[in-house]
Amino acid sequence: MKMNNLFDKLFEVSDTADSLDKFLNENMQTVNEFYNSNYACILLSRNSIEKFILLKNTTISQLDFSKSYAKSFALMLLDFCERFNFIAATPRICTILARHNIPINSRLQAALQFLYPRPETNSELVDRFDTICEELQLAIDTEEDNDNKSIATFLNYYGIVVNDTRLEFAEQVKQKLLNTIQNETYGFLQNENILTIANVELRDLAVAYTQIQNAIDKVLGKEDVIVYVPDEETTKTAQDFIVETNTDYSRELLQASVPNDFNAIRSISGRHAGSQKIAGRGVKILESEEELFGYFKSFGNMHKAKLLSAFEVLPETFDSKVNIIDWGCGQGFASMIFLEKYGNEIINHITLIEPSEIALKRAALHCKKYSPEVSLNTICKKLDDLEEVDFSFPQSDITIHLFSNILDIDGYSQNHLIGLIEQIRTRRNYFICVSPYIDAIKTERLETFKRHFENNCDSFESLLDIANTKNPNDTFWYCNNSYKDCICLKHPENGCNNKWTRVIKVFSVIQ
After folding, report:
1. What pLDDT does 231 receive?
2. Is the same domain home to 13 and 145?
């Protein structure tokens, strides 16, 4: 099935809720691929998407929304409504979401401020400027992989003001925009596309609206691609590896006084990080040592806590040595925690995969710190660029697949990843999949990954499937204070305001 024909196919199979449910259950990988595909591809299906929502609304509303893929699908439809400003379709999807108490992320909450229910007056639409910006900044800081969609949502708001109101109201929003840019009130408004649009003349509103729409197409159409080009020092065969050496950090780390302890190693980054802050939720490919320090300081504890809770359901011991594949390893946190829990005697080989060369070298250094003699393979590639030939490791019956904060991100093909795993997996495979809880769409990516093996492997066994959100009604898991053994008198049961979230799926497959 071609992706640009997806919604035509959905229309055909949606005579009943059961038939739509069956299609989604069997094809959610393809749906996810379409949702994360290039904007130009999605744009080709604009009319088909709107037709599907308007004419199949009753069928959609009858889905079983206790199922994760149904929730995710409904939220994707709302995202398409916002992206293409579907005036008639938006209320229908919003009604479904509200009826089934499906949470909506911050970016779409911002969009609803101007989409549904529509403000009663033009002045009210203008007055929602700051609320919209606050929600979008929150989305960028805590939910989105990058700022592209949030910037497009803001431009969509500005476009509606320009197109649907009078000049005086468009001028008011323009002035608000210029003021916030000058005062640097919201970081995302410093984007070059926003700066360009902020200076667009409004004498001819039709021309201005066209320029805004062109800017939206440009923002959504751009892809942040960092291409790895090996140099002489890092060119390798599958049997070699790249590792950080002869740096101040490597010399400090390898001192005998630094134990093989995650907390002790993190403290080194903490001392060097200073005021370095990682933008967004930490999924950007790291490009400098300052970013490595900042990321370890900011996110290291959360990684450790999630991984330890995931490892609790693994066997206490393994009956043979294991191979580890650390997918999207970053600085190697997942491998470090595994080595800390099990020791290096059971490790046969470690494969580290990461598109950032500087992070990959540090991950290899961290693994060598724990186990100097460990057999290592480092692969500096994005997930979509991996091939079977990249993988070379000694024979072992057991492979541990570590997916720490990687399966929920945008920008990779899950079909490609699963096909690759099917080619390289060994007799017994353990999959440890951990991520923060962001929203139902991102969580469904982990669920879809797990569902493939559940539906296609007779020997599938689920070992742990748990999620904790920031919802006040959800079970509290962890927060900064409780991690530091602090008993907070203000909220002893629910933790501090900076709650940690988690989505953990651990399962095994034997072939």
Report:
1. 44
2. yes
